[in-house]
Amino acid sequence: MSEFRFNILKDKWVLLDGERSNRKGYFNIESVEDAESESECPFCHGMENYTPVELYRKNNSEGEWERRVIPNKYPVLKVEEYLSKNQVGPYSRVSGTGVHEIVIESGEHFLKLSEHSKLILYDTFDIFRTRVAELKKDVRLKYFSLFKNYGYSGGATLLHPHSQVLGVPFVPNMPLAMLRKQESYYLEHDRCIVCDIIDYEMAADERIIYSNKDYVAVTPYASEYPFEVHVYPLRHQADFFDKDTNLLNLADIVNNVFVMFEKKLNNPPLNMGLYIAPVEGYVPFFGNFKSSNSSFHWHLEIIPRLNRTGGIEVINDMMINPVLPEKAAKVLEG
């Protein structure tokens, strides 16, 4: 039997239909493997002259780089673009002004999910924190995101391990929707919605797949995608960049989820991204935002790309998930 579940964080319905997974050809499972020539990879050692000017690097004890940050060679946004906003009839237009950077996570040409070590993941999160501290000096930028595309079906155009940093001049649709939802929930209940989710999940213990002293990984109640995982800070935390954010334990929990995915899902393509607070100040369609906000609670999402989508999902903006999150948790834990 199928059932609808409401995603209270994103304010949208999801249809869970376990029978759908039995349909032939419904899953599009790709095992991500090294399929590119190392000699032609612009992110490998020795190819530094083929990338845009370096913005940041971390070296090892021998002076060889371990992580690099470069501008995206094919950016969706350009920092040099003058920020302009105007109305065109009933429509709004904003110039493509912003920042689009690449974090090259390793000198190794290819890494399986389990090979994304805690150190690599820690450095990636720490570099994001470092880059945003610098990029926030540009007062045009109002929101920053860190995301990772892994595998061709995950949107990667290169398999060399990397993440991307994006800085935009407004708060995008989904972060804004979650910001507003968390605020309305707090005003109605005088509690944080994510804290309530954590408390319920810890008590129910049906969908938790891993936890440490700072974070918990959950297959969410209204998962939009099969084997989707959310990682929540256990204590209320509005600001990802707070000095008390334990990035090492965040790296630990992500590494453990990656190991589960490789073992149980055969190293699938995926997307991973942070949902963090906007830059302090006025946010259109929300109001003034401060980093000490009591309603907002950041989190991280990891989404394996395993199934196809069609008209029901696209036309209705309602995902169909063929794997119940309770089943997903058992598979990943088992």
Automatic annotation (TrEMBL):
Residue stretches making up the Galactose-1-phosphate uridyl transferase N-terminal domain: 3-172
Active site feature: 162
Entry protein name: Uncharacterized protein
Residues annotated as signal peptide: none
Note on how the cofactor is bound: Binds 1 zinc ion per subunit.
Stored InterPro entries: ADP-glucose_phosphorylase, GalP_UDPtransf1, GalP_Utransf_C, GalP_Utransf_N, HIT-like_sf
Keywords for the protein's UniProt record, in alphabetical order: Carbohydrate metabolism, Metal-binding, Nucleotidyltransferase, Transferase, Zinc
GO aspect biological process, one term: galactose metabolic process
Cofactor(s) this protein requires: Zn(2+)
GO molecular function: UDP-glucose:hexose-1-phosphate uridylyltransferase activity; zinc ion binding
Species the sequence originates in: Flexistipes sinusarabici
Domain spans labelled Galactose-1-phosphate uridyl transferase C-terminal: 180-302
Binding site for Zn(2+): 41, 44, 109, 160
Gene3D superfamilies linked: HIT-like
Family statement drawn from the similarity comment of this UniProt entry: Belongs to the galactose-1-phosphate uridylyltransferase type 1 family.
